[in-house]
Amino acid sequence: xxxxxxxxxxxxxxxxxxxxxxxxxxxxxxxxxxxxxxxxxxxxxxxxxxxxxxxxxxxxxxxxxxxxxxxxxxxxxxxxxxxxxxxxxxxxxxxxxxxxxxxxxxxxxxxxxxxxxxxxxxxxxxx
Length: 127
Hints:
This protein has helices at residues 19-30, 86-95; strands spanning 10-16, 34-38, 41-44, 51-57, 79-83, 99-100, 109-113, 119-124. By secondary structure, the protein is an alpha/beta fold. The termini are far apart. Strands 1-4-3-2 form a four-stranded mixed sheet, covered by helices on one side.
């Protein structure tokens, strides 16, 4: 892949049983707008920049198990977000529909589950 100074973008697609609802969760969490929505697909992106999150309909969706267990659906990826105030960020995420994971492996990181059950991490900004 050749790097370009302009015109580059990147993103990831995330499966969900209700892509519009999951897009609304992340739009609120990140304070990014939903930039595209159609049946079975919704896209969230920052006001500036060339990054996006696509949420796609997944029939028969099973949320991943975290921590992973034998025979269970494993997380294929997770998102990390750096935050200034970890407690406040966790409270905001939970108020928006996230669930705090029962296992927390690091003191400066909180693992949560989004409304579709995907794990994601809020990481305290170290300054």
